[in-house]
Amino acid sequence: MSDWIVETESLSREFKGFFAVRGVSLKVRRGSIHALIGPNGAGKTTCFNLITRFLPASDGKIVYNGRDITHTEPADVARLGLVRSFQISAVFLHMTVRENIRVALQRKLGTSFHFWRPESSLDALNDRAAELAEAVGLEDHLDVQAVSLSYGRKKALEIATTLALDPEMLLLDEPMAGLGREDIERITALIKKVSEGRTVLMVEHNLRVVATLSDTITVLARGEVLAEGDYATVSQHPQVIEAYMGSATAEDREHG
User: Fold this and answer.
1) Are residues 68 and 97 in the same domain?
2) Lower Cβ count inside 10 Å, N or C end of the chain?
3) What confidence category does residue 161 fall into, taking pLDDT thresholds of 50, 70 and 90?
4) For a pLDDT cut of 70, what percent of the chain falls above it?
């Protein structure tokens, strides 16, 4: 089995003459946490959309677990174990936190569509649902409908339902967006915990989170790879400092 779980070769996406992503060759090591960072408009989310096939590539190749998925349908990519958070983390507003997490957990039991079974058949999932709720700071909200949650808590619930599916590779697009400091600390710890035995690729603007979690960081600028390495390496790269790190670090200091 290859050390690389995902490899892209000269991956590009053109929109009417504008390249959102151009010639990106990316290797994500199996079992690692790999971060994509860069200024707004750098092409990070477009890369996610290309890898998960929500957008077709204009050029290039995508390989997952040794399989060419360049032209594979998005649903089939998810079934292979390559899951982007928003694909399965929809919050059902008029269901409770517990019920939302249990819906996600049902997939592993193969009972997702057994609507005729009594609700009590899902009680076996309650302990795991409670664990995930506690991990994202929602342990006191298990019986609260999602519609009543604050934005930060809805985001935490989305992450809990995503992680409930236990994918082989998880793509997280700004998992800390909109969260308070305590939630960030909890979810950082949760991502670190669930990364054991699986791979995480994430886009994240919180540099403290990136520095804490990431084994490898790829910096994008104007749709191209600018630098790659661990945090110490990329944070000292002159072009990275100019394009992203300097302004982002200054913003970090400003907001404490």
Assistant:
1) no
2) C
3) confident
4) 86
DSSP state string for 47-92 = HHHHHTTSS--SEEEEEETTEE-TT--HHHHHHTTEEEHHHH----
Say if residue 232 is in the same domain as residue 148: no
pLDDT of 253 over the 50 cut: no
Residues 7 and 27: their CA atoms lie apart, in Å, by: 5
pLDDT one-digit tens code per residue, 213-233: 999 999 999 999 999 999 999
74 and 175 assigned to the same domain:
yes
Q: pTM for the whole thing?
A: 0.82
Q: Which helix (H) or strand (E) holds 106?
A: helix 97-109
Range of the domain at 219: 1-81+168-256
Helix H or strand E encompassing 13? strand 4-15
* Helix, strand or coil, per DSSP, at residue 41: coil
199 and 76 in a common domain: yes
Shared-domain flag, residues 147 and 215: no
Q: What is the pLDDT of residues 139-155, one digit of tens each?
A: 999 999 999 998 888 88
Q: Which residues contact 75 (CB under 8 A, 6 or more apart)?
A: none
Could you give the number of structural domains in the chain? 2
State the Cα–Cα distance between residues 92 and 100, nearest whole angstrom.
6
Return the DSSP state at 243: I
